[in-house]
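Table S2 (text version). Query chain:
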Amino acid sequence: MSTPLPSSEPLPEPFLPPPFANTPDPLPSASLTQGPSTIARALSVALNRGCSAEELIATLKMHPRLAFLYETPPRLPGQYRLDDHSHAVIRQFDKYFAPHPLPGGVRPELLRLTLALHDIGKYIPETTRDQHRATVAVISSVREHLPITDQEFAVMMALIDGDPIGEASIHLTDLTRHTRCSIPVTIEDLRDYCRTTAPPIPPPPTVEHEARRAIAQIGAMARRTHLSVSDFTNLLIRYY
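Corresponding structure-token output:
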């Protein structure tokens, strides 16, 4: 049921801190064909009735591994605890996007669950370079406790495993100011941006390279799912 990590490069050792690695699963290992776990059933009930952000995170904390990571103290001053950050992110989604249909018919419950888990590996790696890989590994390890289909799990992994918008944003912050783009921004807008750059935006090849790299990465992420590139792009923007 697990998803391979996106790189063959070995993760830093020890990849999981001892309290995480030594925490036993709260339930016997079981595949989805044997029926949903207690945690999966509790999550399904909570999500289907539109639970609060706090209740969603509290339900995920039924798994001791997730509870440990949500409550891990930040490493640096000014950083947030993951449960506090996750509450805020889910509330923002609920405020601006939950009332509206999502691209590709994606259930809002899936995106709420994805947002609840999107940073779960943040404080595991020694460098932020491994943050997405660590998060993918943690979520894969608790896959059987998530009340989503394999198709939905693929969408969750694709959204979490990368940050093409953030990585390109240093060169694309003036996108909406200098182009007649739609809201939300689409792949077509990014292509137009490559063709219509003008001062004070940094000249090609910097902008063009960053935009094309983002386009290629988003396309690769979309192909891991059942969604079209357009639908995945608009879903990624809402997730971002």
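Notes on Table S2: Residues 1-35, 174-179, 198-205 have pLDDT under 50 and may be disordered. The radius of gyration is 19 Å.
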